[in-house]
Design a protein that fits this description.
alpha/beta; 10 helices; Arc Repressor Mutant, subunit A; 5 strands
Amino acid sequence: MSNKNQPTIRKGKARVLLVDDHPILRKGLAQMINMEQDLTVCGEAEEAGKAFELVGTLQPDVAVVDISLKTGNGIELVKNIKARYPELPILVLSMHDESLYAERALRAGSLGYIMKEEATEQVLVAIRRVLKGEIFLSEKMKSRMLQQLTTGGRNKVVVSPIENLTDRELEVFRLIGEGRSTRQIAAELHLSVRTVEAYREYIKSKLNLRNATELVQHAFHWVHHEAAA
């Protein structure tokens, strides 16, 4: 009788699915991975819906997922993949600040988070780590999260009030900062206009913003400051 807890013995190269909305970055990453003796890219996607479909048809050994996609959101995609394919290891690779997104990615079900500014060798290390079922984080994030665990969250340092937003609120906030209207956000996230309006109110309250103008200005500044960071 086989033991389900035993790791699967992999024959041949581990198959990697790349999910990123930047074609040039995807191509460079694919070339780097395909040069490795133990890894090969089995598929690519730039939007959440297509990525979810490819997980089912290609059955990759690991998925490397960005947070910002052409349509959809990487954190939500991770949640959806893990709900349907709980055994698939996922690594989130993103330009977004790890202090705001790494913990969210792990809560969603990913095994690792690495920023795009890291050396390419580290990306390969991270892929191999999550393939083994191990967690991969930067030393800085590991120290931060271990400190939170040892203090029971009592000494959690909140760098910005934005950290208090839920995953969905953060996604709405980001889209506001990118200039999307309430109707456009509703269409992109498959939500009703009323629901998006409710999220806007929650965000204003959590960030202590007085009106819609302040919300748009704050979101715009945050999105462009993060992109320049």
